[in-house]
Amino acid sequence: MSSVLYITKETLEQMKDELVRMRTVDRPAAARAIAEAREKGDLKENAEYDAAKEAQGILEAKIKKLESDIASVRILDTENVDTSKVSILTKVTILNLATKKKITYTIVSEKEADLKQGKISVTSPIGQGLLGKVVGDVAEVTVPAGVLKFQIEDITV
After folding, report:
1. Where does the Transcription elongation factor GreA/GreB N-terminal domain start and stop, copy by copy (predicted)?
2. pLDDT (tens digit, 9 = 90+) per residue, 103-113?
3. Of 4, 50, 95, 142, which is least packed with CB atoms within 10 Å of its CB?
4. Considering only 37-41, 89-93, 145-149, which range has the smallest mean pLDDT?
């Protein structure tokens, strides 16, 4: 049903903290909102009650998804990362052959991706295009704007 989710220990802790918050803060708040709406009268024509019930359903779905994600987690440790080729948790410096700009990305799981921090998902087009490449290789990556060519300059942790 769910595939393996490769993440760092820090991200797992963040996920667990979020789950605790959802269970202990958000869930009781949703129940209070339903109770308050129920006190306002006829449930057949009570839009506030319907909205509160819908919000509770969405919250419960998020909790189930997070529980499922946590159950399928595999912890990645930077100590065991092979830097001879681009893989998850490696920091790769690439040269865009068209613009001659150097960029450094860390290849991470979907859950940890944050472009502002230079972390791209292993499932993104660029992430997939770089996987398995070694220093000196040229990766041709198909993106919506066309084909980009990147030369692998450096691979570290």
Report:
1. 6-75
2. 999 999 888 89
3. 4
4. 37-41
Q: Look at the alpha carbons of 40, 46, 48, 52 in this order and tell me if their dihedral is positive or negative.
A: positive
CA 119 – CA 1 distance, rounded (Å): 27
Residue with tokens 């998902």: 121
CATH 3.30.160.20 fits 5-75, yes or no: no
Given the candidates 2.40.50.840, 3.90.226.10, 3.90.550.10, 3.10.50.30, the CATH classification of the domain at 90-156 is 3.10.50.30
| Separation of alpha carbons 91 and 69, rounded Å | 25
Mean local confidence (pLDDT), 127-132: 92
Q: Round to whole Å and give the CA distance between 32 and 39.
A: 11
Domain map (residue ranges) of the chain: 5-75, 90-156
4-32 tens-digit pLDDT:
788 888 889 999 999 999 999 999 999 99
- Predicted confidence at residue 2, as pLDDT, reads 52
The strand order across the sheet containing 91-96 reads 119-121, 102-108, 91-96, 146-156, 138-143
